[in-house]
Amino acid sequence: MLLTMHSSSARVVATPLAHADLMRSGQPSLFAAMRMSSEHSHLFKEMAVGTHGFVNEVGFAAGWAAPLSQLPRNMAFYQEFMRDRFFWVTTADCGGHLGRLEINEALVEDTYMRGAIDYTGFQLILTLSKDAYSIFANRVEIGKPRPDYDDRNVILGIPTPPFAFPAQRGNPKPGDARIKCAADLQPIKRLELDDMIVALVNRRAGEPPDGASMHDRFELISAARLTLATEGA
What we know:
With 233 residues, this protein is mainly β. It has helices at 19-24, 130-140, 214-217; strands at residues 3-6, 10-16, 29-39, 48-61, 69-70, 82-83, 85-91, 99-110, 115-128, 153-159, 187-193, 195-203, 218-230. The protein starts with a strand and ends with a strand.
């Protein structure tokens, strides 16, 4: 079913994508797979799907079935209690675009010690127009109860040529949250969005080999392409 949301000068169109559609796609993109957070809700006894999460996989590929060129990562800071890649989604005026993606340096978090580590990762901040956010939230089930043993990931496919991410840096002490941390965190990239893929997936069993595609890493549950079209088009 084609879903269209209207704004004053444009409409956000969500076109469902089958597995075959994704496999045929050959658009160079940044792909990021996120595990969304669980949050308390005044509407339900259960925990609900939140508006932020942690990035599990990220890299560039020429399409869903193409090899994923992953970013270098210091695995010492991606352990049971460490988080080095973060995701946030919000809504605001996007100036005539469907949305924007801002990528910024961020400090690694020690979730056990509840503090920052003097070492850098990054965060993805996805800001969507009101209509696009409504579609995204509905597909991802933001604010709805999270099923037991829910390990689903949300994947974003953002059309863009590859660009450079800075190397991780800092003076870390693994397992020791620090008070004094790097303060000169830098913006990495800002992308204005008029086209994006949103997919809900399950991770496939086993450890994927280096360069495995998104298809090799994840089993598709559902997907849609969100586009921005001017009124009358």
